[in-house]
Design goal:
Distance between the termini of chain A: 37 Å
Number of strands of chain B: 14
Number of strands of chain A: 2
Radius of gyration of chain B: 23 Å
Low-confidence stretches of chain A: 1-6
Structural class of chain B: alpha/beta
Helix content of chain B: 25-40%
Shape of chain A: elongated
Number of helices of chain B: 10
Largest interface: A-B, 35 and 41 residues
Structural class of chain A: mainly alpha
CATH architecture of the largest domain in chain B: 3-Layer(aba) Sandwich
Mean pLDDT of chain A: 91
CATH class of the largest domain in chain B: Alpha Beta
CATH topology of the largest domain in chain B: Rossmann fold
Oligomer: heterodimer
Strand content of chain A: under 5%
Largest sheet of chain A: 2 strands, antiparallel
Number of domains of chain B: 2
Strand order of the largest sheet of chain B: 6-7-8-3-9-10
Order of helices and strands of chain A: HHHEEHHHHHHHH
Strand order of the largest sheet of chain A: 1-2
CATH superfamily of the largest domain in chain B: P-loop containing nucleotide triphosphate hydrolases
Largest sheet of chain B: 6 strands, mixed
Mean pLDDT of chain B: 90
Number of domains of chain A: 1
Strand content of chain B: 25-35%
Radius of gyration of chain A: 20 Å
């Protein structure tokens, strides 16, 4: 064997193989620890639907023309997509930094956009996997009907992308394990619960309706609900545009941080 | 073509501290090159810049003609790095780590498997391929990093203290492996604190201190600059209270041996005669340290004195 004579793969082929490698590694990671990554959302969803949908929901009555159970199902699915896509990337990429095997990627001819794409797609994969599982659990409690199936899939993918990128940025800045739990605990969870998962903002006083419109998650939950039920507090086109703006803005920010080497290079 | 060319490489951290102060360095293709220096001298920073793990402040680096600023992918594809610290995923198996690294270089899985088998066998890790990496011994972890660095068959292999904490048997087997791959054409840059390692493996040496290259040349050129050699003499008879011997500096050691500094180009017959006249019989003698280590220590000492 002679060293140094190996054929250099073309750029697109090399990038494709590298992308596959990162994505498969990410999927293996969350699949290997499915008890920590997949199962909790299914159990939590089952409890939400049992308590809020089944036991309390019957006393709440109809919301926007639907039973309370039917009304909250899309929001609960979206809740699990958001938390899992974010959580997957923030913990995986921070772990990569913490154990320093980010260096395996940095020394290789992998462009920064590809590193970002690989991790984000890994996060999206977990978000969608959990989303499908939660949907199956929800189907046990109620008859699910999809008013706009393609919209459901599209909004799920795009929202998972937004939060996967968010998790990536969080991981870049994180210097300790505390730093990767602060945003999910103190920002993401409150915004999600106040983002119309369990209620229509039409129930709120005008001031709080206006305040709710500043919450981006409201748009995502409502667009997703529109895909299921055909009703939304927000125009779907506005929600769709906002999600795309977030993807472009956060994606550009994440790429800028990677190019500068923030948090990963000295 | 040089395997590595560095011109005026500078690294200044945001707090104003300079790790590198404009170094120039050439490593010829096929060379086994040692980069030596005390802790904090700038070796790892230089390697970090070459391997794209550290951002440079100024200067140029090119690897087999691929400039880091204009052809980063080409430069990266030419380099394999064995870092000082373990930096693989502790939860992945040996084979996963090596195959993933191949994937990052665009090597298809089937070819990566063939190479992984070859390198893991050569490095005695094939039987451990399905073991989670955190369960490996220190020596195995070092060898895993070498296998990982070779999986894309780089033309330049950089090893940052590859044998630190490794027992002598494994260290020597690693030396043989490195000599073998160097003979097959791969250029090697090695940093080490074992000067014996550098002296026996490397043809050319650069010494870096305070962010500057302070010595550069072949091993024999550097050793030629050594003005003194220190020998330890095991003797029969007391070494305390000996009369000084002109031209030699003698120190009695606590273990009963005699330590003697012999100036360059000075013979030692006269020393033996003088000791014999004083009733001291020399039973054996050896170098106190290996000669490169002695050169290195004196150089660093001189630098410290100059700085003071």
């Amino acid at each position: 064997m002679a060293y140094g004579d190996s054929a250099i793969p073309t750029t697109w082929w090399r990038n494709w193989v590298a992308f596959q490698t990162i994505l498969i590694k990410e999927v293996h990671r969350f699949a290997r620890i499915w008890v920590q990554t997949i199962l909790p959302s299914a159990i939590t969803t089952g409890l939400y639907l049992l308590i809020f949908g089944n036991l309390i929901g019957d006393r709440i009555g109809v919301m926007d023309g639907f039973t309370y159970m039917d009304y909250i199902v899309p929001g609960i699915i979206m809740l699990s997509i958001i938390t899992n896509s974010y959580g997957n990337v923030v913990s995986s990429f921070y772990g990569t930094k913490f154990q320093r095997h980010i260096e395996e990627l940095l020394i290789a001819p992998v462009p920064n956009w590809l590193i970002l794409a690989g991790y984000v797609c890994g996060g999206v994969a977990r978000g969608l996997t959990v989303g499908v599982l939660v949907t199956i659990v929800a189907a046990v409690f109620t008859d699910l009907e999809l008013a706009h199936p393609l919209l459901v899939v599209l909004i799920a993918i795009l929202t998972a992308t937004v939060f996967a990128i968010g998790g990536f940025i969080n991981a870049i800045y994180a210097k300790s394990f505390d730093d990767i739990s602060i945003v999910p605990t103190f920002v993401l969870t409150p915004l999600t619960y106040l983002g119309g998962v369990f209620y229509s903002i039409s129930l709120l006083a005008p001031f709080w309706q206006g305040a709710s419109l500043l919450n981006p998650i409201l748009y995502m939950v409502n667009a997703f609900r529109y895909g299921f039920l055909g009703v939304s507090d927000i125009p779907v086109a506005v929600a769709f545009a906002l999600i795309v703006v977030f993807i472009v803005g956060l994606g550009g920010w994440a790429l800028h941080l990677l190019n500068r080497g923030t948090g990963i290079k000295s | 073509m040089n395997a590595l060319s560095i011109r005026n490489l500078e690294k200044r951290y945001p707090n104003g501290v300079y790790a590198l102060r404009g170094i120039d360095l050439d490593v010829a293709e096929g060379e086994f090159f040692a980069l030596l220096g005390p802790n904090g001298a700038g070796k790892s920073t230089a390697i970090g810049i070459i391997a794209s793990l550290v951002n440079k402040t100024a200067g140029q680096v090119s690897v087999f003609g691929h400039d880091l600023d204009t052809d980063l992918a080409g430069a990266k594809a030419s380099i394999g790095l064995v870092p000082q610290e373990f930096n693989f995923n502790q939860f992945e198996t040996v084979i996963q780590i090596v195959l993933n690294q191949a994937g990052y270089y665009g090597i298809p899985r089937s070819r990566a498997r063939e190479r992984a088998e070859r390198y893991l066998k050569q490095l005695g890790l094939w039987e451990k391929r399905d073991v989670v990496s955190r369960e490996l011994s220190g020596g195995m972890k070092r060898r895993l990093m070498i296998a990982r660095a070779l999986i894309h068959e780089p033309r330049l292999l950089i090893l940052d203290e590859p044998t630190a904490g490794v027992d002598i048997e494994i260290r020597r087997s690693m030396w043989r492996f490195l000599e073998d791959i160097n003979r097959r054409g791969i250029s090697i840059i090695l940093t080490t604190h074992y000067l014996e390692e550098a002296e026996s493996l490397c043809s050319t040496v650069a010494v870096i201190n305070h962010g500057r290259i302070v010595e550069y040349g072949t091993v024999s050129e550097l050793l030629h600059k050594l003005n003194y050699e220190t020998f330890v003499l095991n003797v029969r008879g007391s070494v305390t209270g000996l009369e000084p011997v002109e031209g030699y500096s003698m120190t009695a050691r606590l273990d009963g041996a005699l330590e003697v500094e012999v100036p360059k180009d000075t013979g030692i017959n006269r020393l033996f005669e003088a000791l014999s006249e004083q009733g001291v019989e020399v039973l054996s003698m050896r170098n106190k340290t290996n000669r490169l280590e002695e050169f290195f220590m004196r150089l660093v000492e001189d630098q410290r004195r100059d700085a003071a």
